[in-house]
UniProtKB/TrEMBL annotation:
InterPro entries: AdoCbi_amidolase (IPR002808), CbiZ (IPR052209)
Domain of life: Archaea
Pfam families: CbiZ
Record protein name field: Adenosylcobinamide amidohydrolase
Species whose genome carries this gene: Methanobrevibacter thaueri
Amino acid sequence: MKDRLFFQSSVNDEIYYLKDTIFVKFNVKRNGISTSKLNGGFSNNFKSVFNHHLSQENIDYLENHDVSDYMIQHCESLNIDSNYSTGLTTLARMKNVSIATKSFKNIEVVALTTAGVRTNAVRAGDPAAYYEENGRFGTINTIILINAHLEYETLLEAFMTATEAKTVALNDLKIPSQYSNGYATGTGTDGLCIFSNLESGNNLTNAGKHSKLGELIASAVCESIKKAVKKQVWISEKSQSNVLVRLNRYTLDINEFYDNMDCDKEEFVRILQKDMKKQDNVAITTSILNLIDEFENNLIEKEDAFNLACLIKENCESYPVRSLLEYWINYFIN
């Protein structure tokens, strides 16, 4: 992808593709909050921010080098002053970036996101682990530009709103955690940077969920994450509307199921491939999984969950789907 300017905000911030990096040059004075190893935390002196794709060569280099030193070197390669910049790193491809802009009257929020969620999706509170497979792990990186002026406490509130919005986006897509049976709330390596405009006379003091600013932040984050996930790992509302995808959240060794089948396996799989995307089968599967969730979280009694799940299962007209549901019910409830 050639170096080029591909977006400008309402205050003329310039967003470029530069080699394997998305680079944002600020054309107003900005303060912000960043999770980066480069000038992370709060600052009133940010002049730029970047999101950088790590190649396998970069990853190998970082095994024996400091991340912050690497980012300083990367700033030098881009000819920017590392003292006034901050940045995020990821294995997601920069060509899969998603930008969402939301505005109301004189407020504008721009969210730029890259996202990978297949191998590193995790639910807050899952057992601690750092998952890496052949150097491939997921990261959701989001950069948010706000054209109004926010003090530090409001930036922190915006940070909280954006983080909650990330969870909403992943739950809307039914992204499963790779470490538990729950839905993911993020990945283990997410990054977030939020910036406000110090030159703006529009001083906003609330970025929570009741405020219009909070609504715009959450809306932009949700949209940009969903689009980025679809670009990077091909997960969308349509791909998630699938019986097998839904069942996979409560993972079982399916080989035991197939070994004990007393029917024609080839015919079983053929029918399943046809039936697994039918909306009624997806709806029935989701209802049963919800009962398993309720039982797992001690919200309903085991006997009630089991009996209701069995009743719902009988409404499934697909023999393969019904057989799978019975297997899941017996394993996770009975």
